Amino acid sequence: MWDAIVIGSGIGGLAAATALSKRNRRVLVLEQHSVAGGLTQTFRRQDWVFAPGVHYIGGVGPQPGPENQFGRLLAWLSDGALKFEPCANPYDIIQLPGFEFGISHPESAFRDALMARFPRRHSAIRGWFEACEAARRSAFTLFALHSMPAWMAWGVRQLRGRQVEHWTRHTLADELAKIDDPRLRAVLGARWGDYGAPPAQAPFAEHALVTGSYNAGAYYPVGGPGRFAQTLVPAIEAAGGKLRLGCDVKRIVAQDGRVGGVEFELRGERRAEQARQVISAMGVANTVACLAPTDAADWQQTIRGMGAGISYVSLFVGLEGDIATAGASSANHWIFESDDIGKLWHNPADDDAPGIFVSFPSMKDPASHASPTAEVVAVVDAAAFAPWLGLPDDERPEEYLALKAWVEERLLAQFLRHFPALRPMLRFHELSTPLTQARYVRSPGGAMYGIEMTADRLTSPALHVRTPLPGLLLAGQDVTSPGVPGAFMGGLLAAASIEPTLWSSLRE
User: Fold this and answer.
1) Which H or E run includes 192?
2) Helices (H) and strands (E) in the chain, counts
């Protein structure tokens, strides 16, 4: 019997398993894909290496303080093997028709640049940053509540509950409505794609938390995002644990009212492993799909009532030559075709994307010896791909392939209009769709960040680390925040709930 079984080898699952291994717990990690890492994995096409889920990371700088706690925890788990390279500063560039603004760090530099660019909006800018600070404090309180025992959470809610409720119910659109300059609104709200909810829906606490994570700088893992799994898995194995790939979990087994293990398929054979603690980092929707209907039935019903988040398409572009001379850098570009930054791409076969996110990963990694790359992301309405989302992985009808090819050409043309000097350097391109996301990371509906990002998601007691089924815990972004740091912290919270001595490490 294992001390714990972790389902899913994304950064949340790896964080949970590695932390437990640091306390000499034997952990089995089960991964359905042939490659570990979830959305931190990389893949190769000819001479090009692409990173589908990591474009930049905050909180890993060398400075002391809470802003870089994530980096210190990663260094502890990886024994210092993970290194990060700073991105350009400005690290995010907002582009609107006839307008461009670079977002710099530290936060004071960003604020000063806004003051200089919008000299008549000083009061509104000060109010924005004050609101962000208050909302971030509430977000930290909220995520702490997700891991606390009920009696302790009750006390915290008495002290901070009103503020938390305000900043989670208050949307990004609500806060932006206080600003009467459309360009300033666009700059402040443009990066909602980092957590997957448009302004009218996004809890302001989430926007403040995620965008604020870059206040001490934006970074990229040296050697590429695949280094997360490469450095964390050995620590799991050194403690007697194991990573098994190609394991499709079919059932989380409950006996006598508590978890007893899991059943999975490996190369067509049904197998089982036992443990009295199971940490699910495969997403909460996939978790309840593996339970018997009578196991925590009310909780399962609540989870099934939660919708999937927004979807996206990614265009992976292989280039040849000195792309820096053609406008590429380690900064990200948030490009919008109008001042309306909140539009989804509803008709990808007929219209250009309202906005695209452009990253050049090969410019961010000094250790990379692969050929130059670009990645183009567009948020899309999953309804365009809904007819095929439930099909088996190996079934791709002609109608879907035709739509995919058309969207690929349209998105490529849109990208090259904004970076025309890259056209003669183009050598390769490939599109991923919501079906790709569903296939490789089992994301329901091909969603970008799992379940829908709303105030109800953030405040739901159903998304706490400990579930109503004893021995079953949740890890990853569903219990905290989307993105690598959020999923990582979700994994650590699950591990600490099993091994309380880890709490001291989390506070360092």
Assistant:
1) none
2) 17, 20
Q: Is residue 108 part of a domain?
A: yes
Task: Provide the 10 A C-beta neighbour count for residue 357.
Answer: 22
Express each pLDDT in 275-315 by its tens digit.
999 999 999 999 999 999 999 999 999 999 999 999 999 99
pLDDT classification of 368: cutoffs 50, 70, 90:
confident
Name the strands in the sheet holding 57-58, side by side, starting at the edge strand that comes first in the sequence: 57-58, 218-221, 84-86
- pLDDT-derived band at 158 (thresholds 50, 70, 90) equals low
Residues 467 and 344 in one domain: no
CB burial string 450-477: b at 16+ within 10 A, e below? bbbbbbbbbbbebbbbbbebebbbbbbb
In a domain, 97, yes or no: no
pTM for the model: 0.94
Q: Which domain holds residue 391?
A: 310-446
Q: What is the dihedral of CA 350, 193, 363, 56, to 10 degrees?
A: -160
End residue of a domain, out of 428, 446, 464: 446
Find tokens 């799994």 and name the residue: 229
- Beta-strand relationship, 92-96 and 242-245: unpaired
Q: Are 51 and 224 in contact (CB under 8 A)?
A: yes
pLDDT greater than 80 at residue 147: no
